[in-house]
Amino acid sequence: MSMDEMVTRYREILEESPLEQAAKWKANHPGSKVIGCYPVYTPVEIIHAAGMLPVGIIGGGNRLEIAHADSRFQSFVCSIVKSTLELGLTGKLQFLDGIVFHSICDPARNLGSVFKRNFPQLLVEYIHFPQNMASPHTVNYLAAEYQKLKTSYEQLAGRPITDENLRKSIHLYNEQRKLMRELYRIRRETPQNLSTLETYILTRIGTFIPPEEHIAGLKQALAAAGQRDERPKDRIKVVLEGSFCEQPPLELIEGLEAAGCYILDDDFLLGWRFFEQDIPSEGDPIRNLASAYINQSVYSGVKHDTRERKSKHLIDKVKETGASAVVILAAKFCEPALFDYALYRRALEKEGIPHLYLEFEEKMWIFDKAKTEVETFVESMLFD
Ligand code: SF4
After folding, report:
1. 245 in ligand 1 pocket by Cβ < 6 Å?
2. Which is higher by pLDDT, 369 or 272?
3. How many CB atoms lie within 10 A of CB 327?
């Protein structure tokens, strides 16, 4: 299959019924369990090692009508919280056996409790990620959190999760992440050969299908991307930041590029690409996963790491990629993204790096305003 055929096929799945992929997997594997993972990051290895399928529950996209969930939340809450509840209330998550939330923000915290109360048949888990990354006790603390999760999934799966199972799963997800890093490298070095929309679609499909299948697809895509030799267009090179949790519609990502940007790096689907190096598989695997979160994961708006300023990471990213500007693309009403923006803005201005701030909602249908703002920004840079 060519790259175009792959991307077209995956795009159709993503736009029509991505969760059906996971439901089909379950139907084809009688007795197996599926666990939903709310963004941003879940140690999916623990789920996989129990023989279960971890699936990204990353909102409902822009084709889901919110008819029930609006009445359960305040109006000033981000879309993903409402659309995830809507998926549950309309029976679209019935194939799930469990779902896991995390301490990323107040709305996500509340959503975990709302799920627990409304869907008693679901095993609702909650990971309290550490708030103090610098303490010498943090790895022990997080390893204990993961151990609780492991025990819970052993009960659900009806089988023990051995260290050997965990090591195999760590190895598998290391490979998947390595291939996604490679995809990002190609896009960064030759954005004319691999668009951000393609990169996104090829990454996002992996949140719905088993990692083994995703790895095979990524290998095929990487081989196809390596064959391309397109001429660069007259576009500005940017780093995109702020979409680490709720995801923008595909049409918006496409529109940003069409408006004149080469996006050299982004934080889409960040939790699924959370590590820049492999997680060690020798030794205690639960401890390795915990230690990787503390010491090897990338910066994000929902990780409170006081050891190095987030704004420094963003500035470094701009310099390392050779981008000349930043687009902050933040979900409407996302507090972590808004708090970060205050820090990023100050740092970008200090460094003289131009930036554009845009807000989105996953249920957006009209993109003209965003496109015009990007075009104006691009022109101001190209003809400065
Ligand atoms: S989009 Fe932001 S506010 Fe909403 S759940 Fe995600 S991190 Fe929390």
Report:
1. yes
2. 272
3. 24
